[in-house]
Amino acid sequence: MQITINRLRQEVLDILTGNILPYWIKKMPDHYNGGFYGQIDGKDTLIPQSEKGAILNARILWTFSSAYRLLKDPIYLKTATRAKDEIINHFYDKKYGGVFWSLDAKGTPLNTKKQIYAISFAIYGLSEYYRATGDIDALKYAIHLFHDIETHSFDKVHNGYFEAFTCEWKEISDMRLSKKDENECKSMNTHLHILEAYTNLYRVWKDNYLKQQLQNLINLFIDKILDKNTNHLQLFFNDNWQSRCNIISYGHEIETSWLIHKAAFVMDDRQLISKIEPYIIKIADAATEGFFPEGGMIYELRQSNSLINADRYWWVQAETIIGYLNLYQHFNDKKSLARALQCWDFIRNNLIDYKNGEWYWSIYANGTINTVDDKAGFWKCPYHNSRMCMEIIERFPS
Question: Residue 349 has what DSSP assignment?
């Protein structure tokens, strides 16, 4: 079995260093206006006038900080530093705190709303930059953003975190993260990425209140977000945690299974680990309803009308591999290892653009390549697939 893991490790290392990271280093830095371009379309055409998203920049920051920490190549540090400077100098709101949702192509604030999801990714990236370099400014800004979330977004009455605010932290009518989401005040997705950010911040800043809120987030997933009748995750809620949606998102479920597990390990809380591990297995098993051995993990199921989106998104496949490898690593689940390897074969044979670099957005349900959606952009970032590679490299050292 170790031979199989070693082969996987070498293959993802090759893809990370030869396919994914070089794409972003060569094609995305904006040498005219600073930072990074906002979009390369599905046919690999640069769209230089596109707006620049906070999520894209924060994910570039995390990816290249983590790559530098792990692989020590100075070119990764250069790209990470470029992203850090862009976040601090242009996205960070020096008057009200938080980060702007987007900038225009020239680097001027465009959409100034405060989306907690985006702020979480800024924490994730800045804390990883500090972890990789010891840069104290990056840590200070990450801590500032943590306090912004806790001050403005944490619901002291019903628990959890509200989705979005105006630039001045006032109520906002449209709280949606994207047009396809429900306009509700709390979501599974935002809570997952606050948890992810707080986990990484706790690695480098052992603050007691941060630990308390991180533990609270894990419990929210078990007590509020998880439907214990089906072991699927509910996606959208009102302020009092009443579910407002009946969509099953398989990629988010498999991603959640390993992220909450990692959070408990980072806190070194043995009691919490014992409490959540049965649920981790159940959540991953529920997600497996969307897994096909020869075709990866499908996107989602709308239960109200049984409408299936069977496209294979790049990020869902990446998270599927980590989720299954987590089950293998911690529970010696060899069936999960087999599924991870099957999913990797699907990625290798279908999703990777070996000619131009990076991965396609998705493979349609009919098996054709999606060249309509971005290769790089507001939502298409190097984070999911790079993280998959780096998780494998770190979890299974040679």
Answer: I
Whole-angstrom distance, CA of residue 305 vs CA of residue 301: 9
> Rg for the chain (alpha carbons), in Å?
20
Q: 308: which 2 tokens?
A: 């299936």
d(CA 86, CA 78): 12
Say what the pTM is.
0.98
Task: Tell me the C-alpha distance between 77 and 80, whole Å.
Answer: 5
Pairwise CA distance, residues 82 & 36, whole Å: 8
CA 318 to chain centre: 11
Q: Is residue 32 packed enough to be buried (19+ CB in 10 Å), middle (13-18) or exposed (0-12)?
A: exposed
**What span, in angstroms and rounded, lies between the C-alpha atoms of 102 and 198?**
22
Measured from the Cβ of residue 275, the count of other Cβ atoms closer than 10 Å reads 14
For the chain, the distance separating the N- and C-terminal CA atoms, rounded to the nearest angstrom, is 13
| pLDDT tens digit at each of 398 positions of the chain | 677 999 999 999 999 999 999 999 999 999 999 999 999 999 999 999 999 999 999 999 999 999 999 999 999 999 999 999 999 999 999 999 999 999 999 999 999 999 999 999 999 999 999 999 999 999 999 999 999 999 999 999 999 999 999 999 999 999 999 988 999 999 999 999 999 999 999 999 999 999 999 999 999 999 999 999 999 999 999 999 999 889 999 999 999 999 999 999 999 999 999 999 999 999 999 999 999 999 999 999 998 788 999 999 999 999 999 999 999 999 999 999 999 999 999 999 999 999 999 999 999 999 999 999 999 999 999 999 999 999 999 999 98
**DSSP H or E stretch at residue 186:** strand 186-187
Other CB atoms within 10 Å distance of the CB of residue 137: 12
Residue among 16, 2, 7, 4 at smallest CA distance from 391 = 16
Cβ–Cβ < 8 Å for 394, 71: no
